[in-house]
Design brief:
Blueprint lengths: L13 E4 L2 E6 L4 E6 L4 H12 L9 E4 L2 E5 L5 E4 L11 E5 L4 E8 L2 H6 L17 E5 L2 E8 L2 E7 L3 H22 L5
Antiparallel strand pairs: 1-2, 2-8, 3-6, 3-7, 4-5, 5-6, 8-11, 9-10, 10-11
């Protein structure tokens, strides 16, 4: 009998162009959290008691050891890196979406310039820095963009992962080509 093995849609992604690098990220467990009406505070207390993190405010990214919580829209969050405590389901929807999302890291000197070609977000570190996150467009794809040290982490729905990686690669090549021309090495 044939055994099918689950493989990431970004398996093997490790692209280096100029001073930029795009690589796959294994997030581990990813759970979508959405408190029932009037239960936001209670869900936040349950998160705090069990994992020492709170329910995020709009645009907030919280990291505590291996546990991360990202704001994911109005009254929604992603819990990443751990299984959710049982108490959370008493206060809202808790859905395992691990297999539905893919993530990549974009690092390097000119990554903000490459990413700026694809998203309307203001990527300047003093405006959108570490500790923040946003749901936005990446080209024509909805993405969760999170600043990290030296770059950005980008989460997309699994079915859009290869398209997102391709869009980012094209932007990286464009930025690298402009840098070569500016240095007198291109054309």
């Amino acid at each position: 009998m044939t055994r099918l093995m689950m493989e990431s849609p970004l398996s093997g992604l490790d692209l280096r162009i100029g001073e930029m690098r795009l690589e796959e990220v294994d997030l581990g467990a990813v759970h979508w959290l959405a408190p029932w009406p009037g239960e936001s505070l209670a869900m936040g207390h349950a998160l705090q008691a069990a994992l020492a993190v709170h329910f995020p405010q709009p645009g907030e990214h919280i990291e505590q050891g291996h546990v991360r919580v990202l704001w994911a829209g109005r009254e929604q969050a992603f819990l990443i890196g751990t299984a959710p405590p049982q108490e959370l389901s008493q206060h809202g929807a808790v859905v395992d979406v691990t297999e539905g999302w893919a993530a990549m890291r974009l690092r390097g000197e000119a990554v903000a310039g490459a990413l700026a070609r694809l998203t309307p977000l203001d990527l300047r570190p003093d405006v959108f820095g570490v500790g923040q996150t946003a749901r936005s467009l990446l080209g024509h794809i909805t993405a969760q963009v999170t600043p990290i040290d030296g770059g950005f982490e980008i989460m997309v729905m699994r079915s859009f992962a290869r398209s997102a990686a391709h869009e980012i690669e094209v932007a990286m090549r464009s930025v690298a080509a402009r840098a070569e021309v500016a240095e007198g090495r291109g054309l």
